[in-house]
Amino acid sequence: MYYENVFRALEKNKIRYAVAGGVALVLHGVVRFTADLDLIVDLEPDNLKRFVQAMTELGYRPRNPVKAADILDPAIRNGWKREKNMEVFSFVDPAQQMTLIDVFIEEKIPFREVMQEIVQMTAKGITISVVSLRHLKRLKQAAGRPQDIADIAAIEALGKEKNDGS
After folding, report:
1. DSSP per position, 20-55
2. Among the four residues 3, 22, 55, 63, which has the most C-beta atoms within 10 Å?
3. What is the DSSP letter of 144?
4. How many secondary structure helices (H) and strands (E) does the chain include?
5. Mind listing the pLDDT tens digit for each residue in 40-65?
6. How many independent structural domains does the chain possess?
7. Pairing label, strands 126-130, 119-123
């Protein structure tokens, strides 16, 4: 599994998160290529601090020329959003440039709502928290890019398959 070490660290450190984006689609059963891992992390300070520490211990570094700890400051995150239209904070593994982790810097959906519908999946003995299809669809609708529109169609088709008993 491509991000196995990340999921193990999230589980070990009891970090509240949900996988979103393309990886969530794949975990829900949609055949789609994606290289990055999109995460919704509970922005509660202690949780976010444990997340940054886990990423740092795994060797991940911010893709942009900032300190990883900057994501801990809500005022800095708001400035990124306001001044740079930033949606996610990206971590990259310098040893493997293709391993990119994007973390939402604001709650598109309140985290408590995400947690109410979280889908727990298991792979290689690791429990992975995945955003529900309903919330994934909401996130894709908000983004509205061509790939997101295609992903919404895939989510709707997946829902029909499940409802048809296929």
Report:
1. EHHHHHHHHT------SEEEEE---HHHHHHHHHHH
2. 55
3. -
4. 7, 7
5. 999 999 999 999 999 999 999 999 88
6. 1
7. antiparallel
Residue whose C-alpha is closest to residue 16's, from 127, 91, 125, 123? 127
On whether residue 160 sits in a domain, the answer given is no
Is residue 67 within 8 A of residue 89, CB to CB? The reply is no
Closest alpha carbon to 115 in 31, 52, 165, 47? 47
**50: containing domain:** 4-149
CA dihedral 123, 33, 24, 11 (to 10 degrees): 40
pLDDT at 160: 61
The pLDDT, as a whole number, for residue 7 is: 96
Which pair of tokens denotes residue 159?
């829902």
Question: Domain with 67 in it: what CATH number?
Answer: 3.30.460.40
Q: Which of 31-40, 62-71, 77-86 has the least mean pLDDT?
A: 31-40
Residue 16 lies in a domain: yes
Average pLDDT over residues 72-87: 95
User: What is residue 166's predicted lDDT score, i.e. its pLDDT?
Assistant: 43
